[in-house]
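Please decode residue identities from the backbone states below.
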């Protein structure tokens, strides 16, 4: 049994790492348990984080972990948290490797993960020339011939968004478009072609998309693809502890990362629909400050109990 941790952080992506940094600097004893499967591991470069634009996701995490080594109260563990029991002040985290950690508070920074991609050829191009977020990767594909695979309201929003990066846009709905006549009309009015036949295959070379083949034989040449991924939360542990979830499948939190379960917090993609590294890191920092405030309140008046390192 590894005892006396103030905070157990599940997940060592930008949210969990930044939370650990803030808590370590606040002299809190922290264990951060990470399985090492961040959502952006398929991509070569991560964009949009000031001073780190274009960095490889792995390098970002390695720099962060190096910096955490400056704080002896932070323990980084490569393992999978598989069960959490207990309550506020005395949680027990059991891991795949058989370790047990006793912590006062829990922070879920477990991210989101993609459900298996169900289009032939998409996984070969994912992270190279097929992406999910134009804010992350649109600049690199600006003014190229792009295909957006999308349908329904989210897809309609995607069409409007992607036009900010290219005027050469084609839509594949891969089946019924689920649009109103008005939405379809608005898209066509802008000269954008819509194909609804199912996609047979996305053809690429070394990860670079060349064309999309539809089931009716149509070929659409393109150099990049955007699509709407199907996501699920990175771990079922929040639900098993009783955390309230929203319709998008993320954890319901207040503006400081507090869930409905006493002593349990969440940050990053798991608790937001703003899937950005800088937003995840920022929410990790904010949540860490909130957790530290709660711990300080609990020990106020009883200095002996402050868990100083
Ligand atoms: C293809 C792609 C490209 C992207 N490009 C960009 C970009 O250019 N710029 C940008 O800002 N954002 C980008 N993103 C979004 C970015 O990846 C996320 O917003 C960010 O990683 C969220 O950080 P996080 O810490 O919340 O979660 P993650 O980075 O996903 O980390 C969660 C961690 O928790 C671990 N974990 C989960 N469950 C457990 C468990 N039970 N026990 C132990 N560990 C566990 C996971 O293995 C993982 O390591 C991209 C996403 C994708 C899919």
């Amino acid at each position: 049994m590894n005892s006396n941790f103030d905070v157990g952080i599940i997940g060592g992506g930008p949210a969990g790492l930044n939370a650990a940094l803030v808590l370590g600097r606040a002299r809190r004893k922290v264990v951060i348990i990470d399985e090492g499967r961040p959502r952006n591991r398929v991509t070569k470069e991560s964009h949009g984080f000031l001073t780190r634009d274009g960095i490889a996701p792995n390098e970002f995490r390695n720099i962060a972990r190096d910096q955490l080594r400056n704080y002896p109260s932070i323990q980084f563990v490569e393992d999978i948290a598989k069960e959490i029991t207990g309550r506020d002040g005395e949680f027990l985290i059991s891991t795949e490797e058989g370790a047990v950690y006793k912590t006062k508070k829990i922070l879920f920074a477990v991210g989101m993960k993609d459900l298996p991609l169900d289009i032939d050829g998409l996984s070969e191009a994912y992270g190279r020339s097929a992406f999910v977020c134009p804010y992350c990767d649109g600049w690199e594909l600006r003014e190229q011939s792009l295909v957006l695979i999308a349908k329904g309201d989210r897809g309609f929003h995607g069409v409007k968004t992607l036009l900010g990066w290219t005027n050469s846009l084609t839509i594949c709905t891969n089946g019924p478009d689920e649009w109103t006549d008005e939405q379809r009309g608005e898209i066509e009015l802008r000269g954008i072609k819509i194909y609804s036949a199912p996609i047979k295959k996305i053809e690429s070379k070394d990860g670079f998309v060349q064309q999309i083949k539809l089931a009716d034989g149509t070929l659409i040449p393109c150099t990049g693809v955007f699509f709407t991924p199907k996501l699920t939360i990175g771990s079922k542990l929040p639900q098993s502890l009783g955390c309230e979830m929203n319709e998008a499948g993320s954890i319901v939190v207040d503006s400081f990362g507090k869930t409905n379960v006493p002593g349990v917090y969440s940050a990053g993609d798991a608790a937001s629909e703003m899937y950005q590294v800088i937003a995840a890191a920022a929410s990790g920092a904010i949540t860490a400050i909130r957790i530290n405030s709660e711990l300080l309140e609990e020990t106020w008046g009883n200095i002996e109990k402050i868990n100083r390192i």
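Observation: The longest strand covers residues 2-10.
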